[in-house]
Fold this protein.
Amino acid sequence: MQGADKGQAVDLNGRDLHVGIVQARFNDALTGQMAQVCKDELIALGVSPKHIHHVTVPGALEVPTALQAMADSDRFDALVALGCIIRGETYHFELVANESGAGVSRVSLDHHIPIANAILTVENQAQAEARVVEKSRDAARVAVEMANLLDELL
């Protein structure tokens, strides 16, 4: 990898970070579990529970709007998007998956704030269940790592 520092240490110290979580309630049994795993991992990384702000929205299409409001507030070092889109019989799956993903990326780039996108896009319930814990933990780690990296770079 040209230009990559393979020995670069990853900073997963969440102390003093403020993290916002936006959880889509659609498929709530899964996304509620995702939110809990993500919060637990953030706390394990040193983020104070009082510095974790968790909100819910109806579905994945509404996640970017809440992220944008959080980013506009300038109160957060990083954000996390949580949701679960399970393929159905119509084109709606593609629409929701594509638009929510694009919205999350747009907010991150427009506001220069890291957003860990853990909106699952899966074929079925079993695939979702298999990914809930790992993707939620990864989202917490990504949020902390990227908040620290951007703090260092800016």
In short: The mean pLDDT is 95. Residues 5 and 86 are 37 Å apart (CA to CA).
